[in-house]
Amino acid sequence: IDRHVEAGRKNRAALRWVGKRGETETYTYGDVKRESEAFAAALCDLGVEEDDVVTLYLPMIPELPIAMLACARIGAPHSVVFAGFSADALATRMESADSEYLITCDGYYRRGDPLDHLEKTNEGLADVAHDTTTVVVDRLGDDLDHELADDQLDYNDLVAGHEGASVEPVTRDAEDMLFLMYTS
């Protein structure tokens, strides 16, 4: 992202997203850099350090690649768990990776209906033996009532609280892990 911004493409579209209900969002390279740096700063404030595995249990929403870029920026490998996988699959992967950080969402739409993803997330977290800090993206707004638990944080609040943060990318060796992917 940085090289595109530095090359004068900060106002060009970097990410175009079309949701299941026809909603659209466009992020420029500048937008992606700003949000991924803000989220990287938030992750650091939460205690994420280089080589800590951050689990991403998100559907295909813009916050997914932004979280990936934020993790890469601070040298924290990310582990994507497909949002359609069960609570048990989430717990198993988080336990195996010893991942203490989870990024998820309240829900998403499938065939036009809202799905409560946070309930499934909470079921999975109940089977994780270690403490977990969870960040929740609010995608459904008023279409899904939910309350965050005491150990769950709102993604938008974290990004807004770190708006304008500048986070230099961590230098990594070519052999260092970028992401952790489990096979089915």
Question: Can you offer a commentary on this structure?
Answer:
The protein has helices at 2-9, 29-45, 63-74, 87-97, 117-125, 155-161, and strands at 13-18, 24-28, 54-57, 78-80, 101-105, 107-110, 113-116, 133-137, 152-154. It is of the alpha/beta class and 184 residues long. Strands 4-3-5-8-9 form a five-stranded parallel β-sheet, sandwiched between helices. It has a two-stranded antiparallel sheet with strand order 1-2. The radius of gyration is 16 Å and the shape is globular.
Q: Pick out the low-confidence regions.
A: none
Could you state the order of secondary-structure elements as H and E?
Answer: HEEHEHEHEEEHEEH
Q: For the largest sheet, list the strands in their spatial order.
A: 4-3-5-8-9
Helix fraction, binned, reads: 25-40%
Number of DSSP strands? 9
Q: By helix and strand content, what is the structural category?
A: alpha/beta
- Give the averaged pLDDT, no decimals: 95
What would you report as the Rg, rounded to the nearest angstrom?
16 Å
- What is the overall number of helices? 6
Determine the strand fraction and express it as a percent band. Answer: 15-25%
**Biggest sheet details:** 5 strands, parallel
Shape descriptor reads globular
How far apart are the first and last residues' alpha carbons, in Å? 31 Å
